[in-house]
Amino acid sequence: MPNIDRFAAKSALREAMARDAYARGDVRIADPDLAGQTWLIATHRGLFAIAADGGAGASVKTIVYGWFFGLYRHGSALYVFENCGHRDRSVPMGRIVRFDLAGARLAKPAVLVTGLHTNCHQIAVVDGLLCVLDTANQAILRFTLDGDAVDVQRPFAPAPPHDTSGAYLHINAIASVGNRTAIMLHNGKVIPEKTSELAWLDRDWRLIERQPLPGHSCHDIVADEHGMLWHCDSMAGDIIAADGTRAHITDTLMTRGLAITPDAVIVGMSSFGPRHLRSNLHGGVMILDRALERRTTMILGGSPTDIIAL
Fold this sequence. Notes:
Layout: H1 2-24, E1 37-43, E2 46-51, E3 59-64, E4 68-74, E5 77-83, E6 94-102, E7 105-116, E8 120-126, E9 129-134, E10 139-143, E11 149-153, E12 171-177, E13 180-185, E14 197-201, E15 207-212, E16 219-223, E17 229-233, E18 238-241, E19 246-248, E20 254-260, E21 264-270, E22 283-289, E23 294-300, E24 304-309
Antiparallel strand pairs: 1-2, 1-24, 2-3, 4-5, 5-6, 6-7, 8-9, 9-10, 10-11, 12-13, 13-14, 14-15, 16-17, 17-18, 18-19, 20-21, 21-22, 22-23
Protein name: Sugar lactone lactonase YvrE
C-alpha cells in the first residue's frame, strides 16, 4: 500500500500542476537547449530529447513537463498536443502548443488551441492546415497554423469508446501520403479480435478504402526515404513495413512511437496497464541501424506516445 499511495500522490501532484498550467496558459519548459539532440519523444511524463544516435555517450533529458501525445515539426515550428486533464476524460483540457525552433533552442511557446478532448492523439499538417485526431469523437479537427478553427472532418461515424462491435475505431495516427491522407484504425476493442487497418482518404476527406494490416492495436504511419510505410505492431512488440519486413523489438512492452532517418530507426516501448495507473508507467526507446540491428536501448521516465527526428 505505501507504494500505491506514493504513486497516487505523485500522480495527483502532476495533475494539479498540469491543470494550473492550463488555467494560467503556461507552458512548463524544463530545458530549452536542443544543441546536440537528435530525437524528441512525447510521453505521459514529459517531452524528452535524446542526444546522438544511440552510440556511446547517448543521453536523455526532459525539455518540457506535461502529458503529451501528438508531436509534429513543420518548418521551424514544433506542434504538440498536451493533455492537461491527465486521467480525467470528462474535462476538455487538451491543448495545442507551438514552439519556435530557433537555432538549437525551444523558443516562443504559444498556446494555440484549448478546450480539446483529452484523448486526442497525433497531429499532422495536411494541405497547409494543422490536423488533430480527436480520437474519442472519431473526428479530424482542422486549424490554421496559428490555431484558428477551420472545420471538423468526420469520415467515420461517431461511436462510444466502449463499443466492441467495430464502430469505434480508435483512430490514433495520421499522415499525408502523396495525394491521399492515411489514418490508422487501431481496432483494439473489437470483439472478436480484429487486425488494425489503414483508412485511405482523398483530399476532400472522403473514405477511399480500408486496408487491413498484419498487426493488432497498431500505431504510427511513417514513410522512410524511399516512401515505404512503417507501423508499430504494438501488441506483438514489433515494427512492420508495407513490404512485409518485420523487426521484433520487445517481448514485454508494446511498441508505440516511431521515427526513421537515413542512418537509424528509433522505436518507443511503452508499458500498458489500467488507465488510472498510466501516468506512472515507465517506458523506453530502442535505436536500431537501418539494417534493423539493435544499437542501444534507453529507459525513459514515461511511456512514449510519439517520436520525431530533429
